[in-house]
Design the sequence.
């Protein structure tokens, strides 16, 4: 029996996973992994924590849980995989079933035959075509060498100024890392909001938190030039002409799939620019698979192709590619729903499924709701979280859920990812049986309560609007009665300060006479989180008012300046 | 239009939820809530933390998130509900549509008419029929008054000895509470293990942890008598004759539904002893609903009735009962899957769905797997967790998942509860798209990895056994080669100490000659968590060995004594 020759290009996440899985499923296979970079299996999602200094040792990013560095000797011994680092694949000869390689250090070249090839070439950070991008002090955070450099620079520049170009996931993680490392950080995001995977209501809350932690955040403005002197960065010029002095610029405007090899070999690319595969991670060449950041995948909710350059998916895709390379197409990668989470100072920001914006872009009619609450009971030391749910209007199926805050966002987003994967509806989640004890959740879990709110909206019991929509009404000159139904003490501590009227919910039924005589007068009811705001709406509607809106999430979700 | 009269019996969890929901859906309804106890809406799941002293103020157990005590004035003002405390319902006259009530303090009696009645009478702790149960110093932890008393006693008895009868959820929470409060605690559990919602593999790990924290845990032995002198507890006598001196005994052997009122009124009870309702929480009387600990509910996985006296379900059932009492049967409670979690010192222990034992009792053929891993990457400060998955053999559908450990058990159990509610299979979860970032999960989430393991078992790629099954083989005189495939340093730090052979995985392919010549010789491979153990099995099988077993969860899941 001839040994099957499996060649894997790329050694970060998808590649090693594919190689190891292939070998486990066929101990007789000859598995070779070619890695251009000097290291293997780098925990690249950990780079921001290495830059910040909270990850002390570089090797911790390269180790197995048992503390062994994943180097070629480890791969040879433990995995039975021949891993060659510093070895770039320069071409794929599909007809000859070979790859051409070149050792970076020596220039040595050679060819390697394959029966099945797995491409896991990853992605590269996008670099904006602006003057000054070649200056010393301009970097990305994509490779371990980038992380080394950024860690050193941050250490050397204590108290100095850094500008991060891009307020996405990596931009905001880097913002925290450099702030923690002692730099004064400004994030510049060309889009109107940071963290594009969130709808603006939630993104604004994270932005406020980052600002409260000392970071400057500028949105809706791009960078036109990186300024320098003597070859080193001295600042950036914004598109509106403003200049920000700084000695460090981190470019974090996203990544692009590395498809040059695949393209040169004539493999089909998708409309997104990633390598096109079928559900078995097989490319247009039946003997070539691809996995990780270099491929495009299917969004399971829209059915459309998308790029999803995330470490967790890379591992799953690699597992599928590795299996199929040796067993034939027994494994399937079903696609993504777009789950993600990131830490931004003391906040977590996570989302799964479609945001409202993306659902509407996909032409889906949706109903949404905001919910603000503690994560666990107050007597256990609760922290606040705010979430948004996106529901298909026609079916009640949950399409998206996002959550931000200082509390336990992680559980909420993870459980709702599974709910979306299971095709659950609002009614399903409204009666979900989840693990409850006071250290871990509310008696009615936050996400279940979010489902209750949107269920009340779908049934016409609650008429809600996000704080952004309410703000728009005020900005457009509409003058609804802003009805704060909290207690006087809460009102003293903090309030909108926009001419609102305070009538505590407990007195509302008796004090209806103080409200406008016109039952069609617009009223916006709210409280701290708008549970009481909703109850006020029910009372007012029973009293004949027909234009009452609840400001969803209440003051906890109001992302603009407030009094006191 | 005549106002609908809704009467609710019971004011802890289900009752207040039902009353408030009913009023929100019909502001014109007259909603009256009758509560025997002096307080309303007590956060009874928080009692252990109040006893321990970590919840400082009693009122924190009675407050809204905004800090308002939920007393009758609050219910009247904010909820529009007339709540009468210290008022016991003594009888239900179904024909007359009235309830008879009596004020505990004054003896005053009266009648209250209803159009719809909601019974939420809760449950009472079981008291074993043993001598001495009336002694001072013997208590349960079911009411706020119990919690007051226990908190006082624990404070007064600093350094004293307490015995907790029953090692279930409340027993173990109370064990932690009294230990934290400064007492020396012994838990006595008549069954062979604590925490009956877990299979023994995981329960043993929690037991070990409790012991490491200073608690004594005795399993498989009951209490025959509570010993006393001068009317006060001095100790307990176990069924095997041993005596444990103590000055405090907490009875925590479970609760029974309070059904006397319902039974006397001729309402149908279920086979479990709880009030029988349909999916709308309607009893055998069309004008009477029931919710909370007093009802029996349907297990969604077995289809069988069960008691599920949990605060989260009480709220959901109350929401359904409250809605249906005013709107007709528009809302449905779909039943439970048995999700729960509790904190035991630094461990969390959670489960959802069926344990292996319960699945087998229900006649379902299942395959299971254990998985031990860090909860997040090692470089982020990981803590270990161990989980068990229970899968229907015929379909691959996930029926149960349990997880224990010092790490983030909460997310794991919550997400898998949603997976079970969604009817997901092992294949589905093996490719789940969950939120990942290093502060929050592994790149391949723990539960996904657990699915990978059981998938490998289902496909015959991995042959695994739990540590308990391996221990049974050893105890039965079988002498498999115990093959530890970790590194020498790990081996020095800690090992089974049962005559095992160390061959690090990285050397295994070269050192096959050191293994038994007989390819049928039984071998049990393992490492710290048995990832490498599984890889060793694959290598050995490729070398012709046909009787290799992986010890699932490895040393991390081995619940017996180990060397060093």
Sequence:
């Amino acid at each position: 029996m001839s040994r099957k020759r499996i060649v894997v290009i790329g050694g970060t996440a998808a590649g090693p996973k594919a190689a190891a899985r292939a070998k486990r499923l066929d101990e007789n296979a000859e598995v070779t992994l070619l890695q251009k970079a000097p290291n293997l299996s780098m925990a690249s999602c950990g780079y921001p924590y290495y830059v910040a200094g909270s990850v002390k040792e570089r090797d911790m990013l390269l180790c197995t849980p048992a503390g062994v560095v994943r180097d070629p000797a480890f791969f040879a011994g433990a995995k039975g995989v021949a891993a060659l680092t510093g070895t770039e694949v320069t071409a794929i000869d599909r007809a000859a079933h070979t790859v051409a390689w070149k050792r970076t250090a020596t220039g040595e070249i050679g060819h390697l035959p394959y029966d099945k090839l797995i491409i896991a070439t990853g992605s590269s950070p996008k670099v904006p075509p602006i003057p000054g991008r070649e200056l010393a002090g301009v970097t990305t955070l994509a490779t371990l060498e980038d992380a080394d450099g950024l860690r050193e620079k941050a250490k050397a520049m204590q108290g100095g100024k850094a500008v991060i170009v891009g307020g996405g996931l990596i931009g905001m993680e880097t913002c925290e890392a450099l702030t923690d490392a002692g730099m004064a950080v400004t994030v510049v995001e060309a889009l109107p909001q940071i963290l594009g995977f969130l709808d603006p209501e939630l993104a604004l809350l994270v932005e406020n938190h980052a600002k409260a932690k000392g970071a400057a955040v500028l949105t809706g403005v791009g960078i036109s030039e990186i300024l320098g002197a003597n070859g080193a960065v001295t600042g950036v010029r914004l598109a509106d002409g403003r200049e920000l002095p700084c000695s460090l610029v981190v470019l974090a405007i996203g990544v692009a799939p590395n498809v040059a090899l695949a393209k040169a070999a004539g493999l089909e690319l998708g409309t997104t620019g990633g390598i096109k595969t079928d559900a078995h991670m097989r490319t247009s060449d039946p003997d070539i698979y691809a996995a990780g950041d270099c491929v495009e995948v299917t969004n399971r909710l829209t059915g459309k192709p998308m790029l999803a350059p995330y470490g967790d998916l890379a591992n799953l895709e690699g597992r599928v590619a590795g299996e199929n390379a040796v067993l034939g197409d027994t494994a399937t990668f079903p696609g993504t729903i777009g789950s993600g989470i990131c830490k931004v100072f003391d906040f977590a920001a996570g989302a799964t499924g479609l945001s409202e914006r993306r659902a509407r872009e996909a032409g889906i009619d949706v109903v949404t709701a905001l919910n603000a609450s503690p994560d666990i009971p107050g007597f256990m030391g609760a922290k606040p979280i705010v979430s948004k749910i996106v529901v298909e209007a026609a079916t009640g199926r949950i399409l998206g859920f996002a959550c931000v805050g200082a509390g336990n966002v992680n559980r909420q987003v993870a459980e709702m990812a599974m709910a979306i994967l299971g095709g659950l509806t609002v009614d399903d989640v409204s009666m979900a049986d989840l693990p409850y004890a006071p250290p871990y959740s509310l008696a009615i879990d936050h996400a279940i309560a979010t489902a209750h709110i949107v269920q009340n909206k779908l049934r016409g019991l609650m008429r809600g609007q996000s704080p952004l929509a309410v703000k728009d009404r005020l900005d457009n000159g509409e003058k609804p009665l802003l009805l704060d139904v909290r207690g006087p003490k809460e009102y003293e501590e903090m309030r909108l300060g926009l001419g609102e009227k305070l009538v505590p919910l407990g007195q509302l039924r008796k004090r209806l006479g103080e409200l406008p005589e016109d039952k069609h007068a617009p009223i916006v009811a709210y409280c701290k989180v708008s549970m009481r705001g909703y109850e006020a709406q029910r009372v007012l509607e029973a009293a004949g008012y027909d234009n009452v809106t609840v400001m969803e999430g209440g003051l906890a979700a109001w992302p603009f300046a407030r009094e006191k």
User: Anything to note?
Assistant: Chain A has a mean pLDDT of 97.
